[in-house]
Amino acid sequence: GGVIESTGDLAIATSGDAAAGIVESGAHSAITFAAATTRVSTTGKAAHGLVLENGAVRTFDDTTANALPTITVSGDDAAALVASGTGSILTLEGNAALSTSMATGAESWGAKAEDNGEVIFAGNSSTGGAGLWAQDSKIVLRDNADAAGSRVRFDGPLGYGQLQIERADAALGSLEGNGSLQFLNPGGMLTLGTVNTAGGGSLVDGAD
Asked: Exposed, middle or buried, 182 (CB in 10 Å: 0-12/13-18/19+)?
């Protein structure tokens, strides 16, 4: 639950399984950095870029004080941004955007919610086509948030990974897993596009 402030150039590189770059832990934790000059790079299985855990909460909205740093992850099951654990909430709003360059491995992800954490895309935010993974947790799309082209996976050992869509219509690259899809606007339309990494616009049944 501490506070760390970096005002200059910051380069973080990790290697190894579960070797996260930045971790904010606890409801009162805060790490501030100059986004334009902060770079995080990880290699290794589940080596995430920026992790919120144990009730940490953070919003990125693409303003100077709340812009995303440059993050690159490449390992299997690694995500650039993670919300982990009950009460941990990562929100992208305003014009905040992910990109496919943030997750360069075949099984790495742009954003992940795990162990009852929550990732929210709101405002005019965008996934930039990066993959999303809800593992026994929830990912939310609302307002004008754009997830076109993103591979979306919802699953987990407890089987309640969830994608919750709170906007009228939504477009994704593909869906897979044994979790649940909630569309909260009756009459809305979900479009699965062809620009994705898993199945050419497919809906994959992973319930068996």
From this structure: exposed
d(CA 184, CA 176): 19
* 3-state class (DSSP) for residue 172: strand
Retrieve residue 176's tokens: 């897979």
CA atoms within 13 A on the CB side of 162: 16
**Angle at 21 (CA atoms; ends 18, 23), nearest 5 degrees:** 90
Alpha-carbon distance of 166 to 176, in angstroms, equals 19
Q: Per-residue pLDDT for the chain (208 aa), expressed as one digit of tens each?
A: 666 777 778 999 999 999 999 999 999 888 888 888 999 999 999 999 999 999 999 999 999 889 999 999 999 999 999 999 999 999 999 999 999 999 999 999 999 999 999 999 999 999 999 999 999 999 999 999 999 999 999 998 888 899 999 998 899 999 998 888 888 887 788 888 754 444 444 444 444 4
Structure tokens given for 150:
């993103």
* Strand (E) or helix (H) holding 64: none
Buried b (16+ CB within 10 A) or exposed e, 83-92: bbbebbbbbb
